[in-house]
Backbone:
């Protein structure tokens, strides 16, 4: 249980996940969260992380800081994805050990599992086969992070746990074509197509891959639940069971946005893995299940996006999530 003696720190509070964690913690009465923007604290720099731990001495850490992006960002910038994530993880996990953090929760991703893992994917599928090439650099960094938590638990007795969420979406996401994931990218494209009265919208790939989507508020709820009720070396999958093809997702987003033109698939863009549905038996056994239905989550996310655009963001400038 987070005992509130000592600070609770959300690393990465400007990202999709970090924002949701802060919303949730503040709603639960956590005031004065020690938040630092990137210009105050660059988590890739060991000396800056050290100074932060020395000054704040966090007792609980949610490690939600990461360089993240959709399939194209992973393909075009794998060097940044492996470098930034490894550095952030090493700096924070090591500082958490040295400064005696009571509990740390590390966030990974379902892309750590083999490309052709048996579905739904159980946690023990880890390292049993080759990874999906489009995000291998990111996946290897995340595997290193969860392994570091495990190793520190084994050698030093650190209470560090790891959560592996499926594909996330929600308010605060990156609505930017070059770096965004599929939900915000399509939402923006359909929105702009409707406004510009375009007849068609391009959807990358074949439309056939299946993805499971989890609303980020559900993930925040799962993270707090795990922080309070789990203390083990095994990673925990977090998913919703909401699995759809990309073609079906595109139709649903078009309906939410009110775009009634044609949807065209662009096979020159990568599909990524054919399917990644997580087995969530472990989280279910711990007493947690997701609650946001996909259509409701998409509507709520679109409302958020429209408000952002209305309040001055062009859409292009709506900030990246890491
Ligand atoms: O969301 P996305 O980039 O994540 O893509 P991944 C999901 C699927 O949507 C892929 C298709 O099959 C894409 O080809 N798609 C269709 C689009 N239109 C679009 C579009 O406009 N933008 C995007 N981004 N996709 C990421 C990994 O993989 O998943 C990360 O690269 C991370 O490492 C994340 O693990 C959860 O599921 O393909």
Residues:
């Amino acid at each position: 249980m987070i005992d509130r003696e000592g600070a609770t720190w959300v690393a990465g509070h400007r990202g999709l996940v970090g924002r949701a964690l802060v919303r949730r913690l503040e709603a639960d009465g956590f005031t004065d969260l020690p938040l630092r923007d990137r210009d105050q604290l660059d988590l890739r720099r060991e000396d800056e992380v050290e100074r932060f731990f020395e000054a704040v001495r966090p007792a609980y850490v949610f490690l939600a800081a990461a360089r993240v992006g959709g399939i194209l960002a992973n393909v075009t910038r794998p060097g940044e994805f492996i470098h930034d994530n490894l550095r952030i993880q090493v700096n924070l996990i090591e500082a958490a050990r040295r400064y005696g953090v009571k509990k740390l929760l590390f966030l990974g991703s379902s892309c750590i599992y083999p490309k052709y893992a048996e579905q739904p994917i159980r946690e023990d599928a880890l390292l049993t086969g080759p990874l999906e090439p489009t995000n291998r650099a990111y996946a290897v960094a995340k595997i290193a992070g969860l392994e570091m938590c495990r190793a520190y638990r084994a050698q030093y007795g650190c209470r560090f746990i790891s959560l592996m969420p499926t594909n996330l979406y929600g308010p605060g996401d990156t609505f930017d074509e070059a770096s965004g994931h599929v939900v915000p990218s399509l939402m923006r494209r359909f929105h702009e197509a409707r406004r510009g009265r375009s007849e068609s919208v391009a959807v990358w790939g074949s439309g056939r891959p299946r993805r499971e989507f989890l609303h980020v508020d559900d993930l925040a709820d799962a993270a707090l639940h795990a922080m309070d009720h789990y203390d083990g070396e095994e990673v925990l999958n977090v998913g919703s069971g909401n699995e759809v093809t990309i073609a079906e997702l595109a139709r649903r987003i078009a309906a939410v946005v009110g775009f009634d033109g044609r949807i065209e698939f662009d096979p020159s863009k990568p599909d990524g893995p054919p399917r990644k549905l997580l087995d969530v038996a472990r989280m279910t056994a711990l007493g947690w299940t997701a609650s946001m239905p996909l259509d409701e989550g998409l509507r709520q996310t679109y409302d958020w996006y429209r408000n952002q655009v209305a309040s001055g963001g062009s859409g292009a400038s709506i900030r990246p999530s890491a």
Q: What stands out?
A: Confidence is low (pLDDT under 50) at residues 314-322. Residues 86 and 144 are 8 Å apart (CA to CA). The pocket of GFB is lined by residues 70-72, 74, 109, 111, 134-135, 138, 167, 180-182, 185-186, 203-205, 209, 211, 246, 269-272 (CB under 6 Å). The chain is about 40% helix and 15% strand.
